[in-house]
Design brief:
single chain, about 260 residues, alpha+beta, Jelly Rolls, 2 domains, 6-stranded mixed β-sheet, 4-stranded antiparallel β-sheet, globular
């Protein structure tokens, strides 16, 4: 039982790593009637997937989480990349469009990230309209003099847009330095993919855990459902306690026997 408790605590820590605080607002770039300035797309070099897959064949034989993305070093700021656009009310928007050809998803890391009061930051897909945002100063730490690192979660598909909004009352520029974009190449369950089992494409065995039928499974809902960690944790749970192997966890789109 003690081992199960420790493992549960580990799940909570991993879950927090993937949490993304945001206001739920819509970026200007996805608003009807917004006329964005024409902008070129920054295309990233596709990683050597053949070599990566060959490495994975060997690494996947060892215990631990499976790699599903590879890091691509970049150096994007509001000064050296993207376009600035001034709106009629005096506010400004910076937008950067990036394409990672054939990527299943991208995850973005910032080694320096700070926003002035009143500013907002978004990451989204124009293809699926998936949005992370708005990220506001209250959700980040650090200062302009000592900005800290930051990360934004998966954006599904190969295209991603970064958008910074600065109202006319704000004169201080942000500190945004994108230093790494992870290229996800496998084990990504894209809920926006109409060709697969996305939203509304559940199997007959699926029951929405937030419905009354799922009231007895709320603790299981709190477990990690990120695919690479999920597989690892399932193996660990089986190892520690065989008695729970009959639990059925309803994941986002699949039924998983543990």
């Amino acid at each position: 039982m003690k081992k199960i408790i420790v493992l549960s605590a580990f799940c909570v820590v991993v879950l927090n790593l993937y949490a993304q605080r945001a206001t739920g607002e819509q970026p200007y770039g996805l608003m009807d009637g917004f006329r964005a300035q024409p902008q070129a797309i920054t295309v990233l070099q596709t990683p050597d997937i053949a070599r990566i897959v060959e490495e994975d064949l060997e690494k996947d034989t060892h215990p631990g989480p499976s790699r599903y993305a590879c890091a691509m070093p970049v150096s994007f700021t509001t000064e050296n990349s993207g376009n600035w656009q001034q709106l009629d009310d005096g506010s400004k928007i910076w937008r950067l469009k990036v394409s990672a050809p054939d990527a299943l998803a991208t995850i973005t890391y910032y080694d320096r990230f700070w926003l002035p009061e009143g500013a907002k930051f978004f990451v989204y897909s124009e293809d699926t309209r998936q949005t992370i945002g708005a990220i506001i100063p209250e959700f980040i730490e650090g200062s302009r003099e000592k900005p800290l690192g930051f990360a934004t979660a998966e954006i599904y598909g190969e295209n991603v847009v970064y958008e910074y909004y600065q109202p006319s009352s704000v004169k201080e520029p942000p500190v945004i330095h994108i230093n790494r974009i992870d290229y996800a190449y496998r084990n990504v369950n894209n809920p926006y993919n109409n060709g697969g089992r996305g939203l509304g494409k559940a199997l007959p065995c699926n029951i929405n855990i937030n419905c009354p039928e799922g009231c007895n499974w709320q603790m299981e809902q709190m477990t990690c459902n990120h695919r690479s960690w999920r597989d690892y944790l399932i193996k660990k749970i089986k190892k520690y306690e065989n008695k729970i192997c009959n639990i059925l966890v309803y994941g986002g789109n699949d039924c998983h026997w543990m």
